Amino acid sequence: MSQNVHPRPKAIIFDWDNTLVDSWQVIFEAMNATLDDFSLHPWTMEETQQRVAKSMRDSFPELFGDDWERAGEIFTEHFSAIHLDRLRPLPKAEEALAELANSGVYLGVVSNKRGAFLRAEAEKLGWDRHFSQIIGAGDAPQDKPATDPVNLALNGSGIDLGQGVWFAGDAQIDLECAINADCVPILVREKSPQTDEFTDFQPLFHFNTVLTLSNFVKNL
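User: That's the sequence. What structure does it adopt?
Assistant: Structure tokens below.
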């Protein structure tokens, strides 16, 4: 984690899956059930983690061609059946969000998970109270890494895109979205960035947990 001096953020926009909650097992099972329905080769967990980042409308046409909408319906059915029962917050995420919200930082979510699923999960965890806007796939004209959902997440805040807004996530698509929106790109994951891993989209800071990020912001 860099120790460069940086102004305190006015807003932090969070990715959801595997930034705040552990979603890989649910995505893995729903994706492989969908692939199986189309007689396609199943993915390993490693392949799932490498290949799942874009929203359904941006990724499924490449995977399933003209059948992508039907594949989306099948995935949605599988995912819907298990996601709330399997919902697992990442360690200390609740504490971190409460600290940030109580400190006056504007909080939002931008995810490529379908908006209805995203908001249902936030409500079940009781985290919807921390976020002013929870924006998922399909809520804006374009999905992450486009800037549209970031603009929507800041709607009504009086905060403009720029260096006063941090975008925190676990994947390259989050860093790309941050840079597209002229926001501060923040990597949040246990594993440190590897050499040349983010050649085109470098994070300004890396934090191994959301609580580490919250503690850093608290001291700015």
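The beta strands are 11-14, 106-114, 133-137, 165-169, 184-188, 205-207.
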